[in-house]
Amino acid sequence: MLLFLSALVYLMLLVGLVARSSEVAALTIPILVYLAAGVYFAPGGIKLKTSRKISAERVSHGKPLSVELAVDNVGGNLDEVFLEDLTVPPIQVIEGHNQRLLRLPQGGKLVIKHTLKGGRGEYRFENLSLTANDFTGLFVVRSQIPAPARVLVYPEVVRLKHIHIRPPQTRGFAGPIPARTGGSGTDFFGIREYMPGDSPRRINWRISTMHDDQLFTNEFEQERLADVGLILDARQQSNVTTLNGSIFEHSVSATAALSKAFLDDGNRVSLLIYGFALTRVYPGYGKVQQDKMLRALARGKTGVNFALENMAYLPIRLFPPRSQLVVVSPLLESDLPAFIRLRAQGYEVMVVSPNPVEYEYQSYQKSQETEFGLRLANLGREKQIRNLKKVGVRVVDWKVSESLPKVIQRGLGAPLARLNLPRSGV
Amino acid sequence: MRQTELLLGVFTLAASLTLAAGYALLGMPGPALIFAGIAIAWWAAGRRFGNFVISLGLLIFTLGAVVGIFAGLDFYLVVISLAASLGTWDLLRFRHRLKRLDANRETAALEGLHARRLAVVVVVGGALSFAPSFFEARFSFWIVVGIVVALLFSFEKVLRVLKKNRREA
Q1: How far is residue A40's CA from residue A185's CA, in Å, rounded to a whole number?
Q2: CB-side exposure of A21: number of CA atoms within 13 Å?
Q3: What strand order describes the sheet that includes A65-73?
């Protein structure tokens, strides 16, 4: 604009000189006065102090977040200044404005308040973008004022009912998991010979009367805590992205819900995010562990790493031997050998698999071709799940349009003995 | 935004009417109608298009003013038209900047300040344009030399400012 006005002035003066017309030359005077006013009011040195307050550094999914950004002008007058608190999509402003256009005099103060809402993720607020100009808009100064902050939006955690698991090995503390060894408990486990110290109440009189000089005692199955390892598949290869979002988000929310369910039962739970890198949350108990896991899940991203392109490269030694593993993955065909290896090593494996076929199908227009494609893809997936079940992996095929608690209750809610699945160990 | 819209309407009307009246007084109704039409198009295009179209309007009105001088238009009408079209150009750009935000108390204050400063600049600029004719100044050899030297000097300054702005951007 400055160039345009200057060119106009030079052109008119040139025409005036060539034509020896003082009137044409005089026509440049309003423009020259305008330019001079622009120079006079041009923004000088910009010195702003900023401080940012955020209502919480960590928020649950769907909860709004209020941001208050205080700006203090310790430099010269700013006649027209456009301030924008840069937000990173997919976080959105739902109340207030993160942009302001105003006059900020020397010593002036300003507070920008707005409320944000966003999906799961880690959001970093870096800078306040500033564009200052004089009233003519000819002399523009752009700057970035640092106002750093960081917010974690946790994934959605749905409440699940008790999930029945029976890992071959349990920990030494009392808990809800049948430990496959006799001792004190509630479920009948077996009968053994009476030993001094056994409670007379536990003597099985029916069996004892069948034998001379021998007493038998009822044994109950011990109930202990278990080690549960959650593995979240964050490989880009297994992720399906459509216009409506990505199936990985469903995997993350399922992992969050499972971690809560297992931790609420008192188990020791760990997490491994298997994708671009290996993100690990070491085994632990209780609410602190839940918070650590949610933080890791909030930061979780899909990525490609050729060293981790296959589940066969899963660093299984990170999990206690013969423990319960829960893999949350849309599954790839090449993953089967890895699950066979896990079962062979004595792990109890459970797979919660968001159905990628159904998910992708939802984004297509319904036609004969897509219906046919769906049938073919479903056949492949059914075969894949059948193969996994054959090697003793419990699989929950989750069509993400259905509610997770219902699907989990249907697939994993019943005690294992009634599921008629092959048991490992013992 | 209402204040800016109102002022924009006044400036656009003044720019078009004065130039159209000047040409009409010379017995040239064609250019008069053309400039009236261009003013409406300029005002409307400023809502949708960016700086290029806005600046095109000012260029057309400046050309109209220069041609009008040579055609013998009343100098006072030409100066008023040029000053008003400069104001229109400025307000269209200002409206463009305001469009990014919803109207509030701060933008209303900004509009008021902008309107006052622009009014002063346009009135002072217009009034100063009459000064040479008031003093009956004519180009003499030394005035021409002075203007050329000033032109060369300012040209170098403008280039320096532009380079600095580009570096900062």
Answers
A1: 88
A2: 19
A3: A48-54, A65-73, A109-117, A92-96
Summarised one tens digit per residue, pLDDT across range A217-232 is: 988 877 777 889 999 9
Q: Do B131 and A29 touch (CB under 8 A)?
A: yes
Cα(A392)–Cα(A386) distance, rounded to whole angstroms? 10
- Highest-confidence segment of A46-60, A97-111, A211-225, A374-388: A374-388
Question: Is B69's CB within 8 Å of A21's CB?
Answer: yes
Of A26, A100, A102, the CB nearest to B129: A26
How far is A296 from A314, CA to CA, in rounded Å? 18
Q: How far apart are CA A171 and CA A177, in angstroms?
A: 10
Smallest CA-to-CA distance from B64 within B40, B34, B87, B44 is with B34
- Which tens digits make up the pLDDT trace of A365-411? 888 988 999 999 999 999 999 999 999 999 999 998 899 999 988 88
Asked whether A42 and B72 are in contact (CB, 8 A), the reply is no
pLDDT of residue A419: 44
pLDDT of res. A243: 85
Cβ atoms of residues A34 and A136 within 8 Å: yes
Q: Report the predicted TM-score, pTM, of the whole model to 2 decimal places.
A: 0.69
Contact residues on chain A for B65, CB-CB shorter than 8 A: 27
Quick check: B79 and A8 CB within 8 A?
no
Between B14 and A3, where is the model more confident?
B14
Instruction: Determine contact, residues A89/A137, Cβ cutoff 8 Å.
Output: no
Distance CA A110, CA A81 (A): 12
Q: pLDDT value at position A252? A: 94
Q: Do B106 and A24 touch (CB under 8 A)?
A: no
The CA-atom distances, in angstroms, between A203 and each of A75, A187, A410 are 89, 15, 38
Q: Kindly report the number of other CB atoms within 10 A of residue A340's CB atom.
A: 18
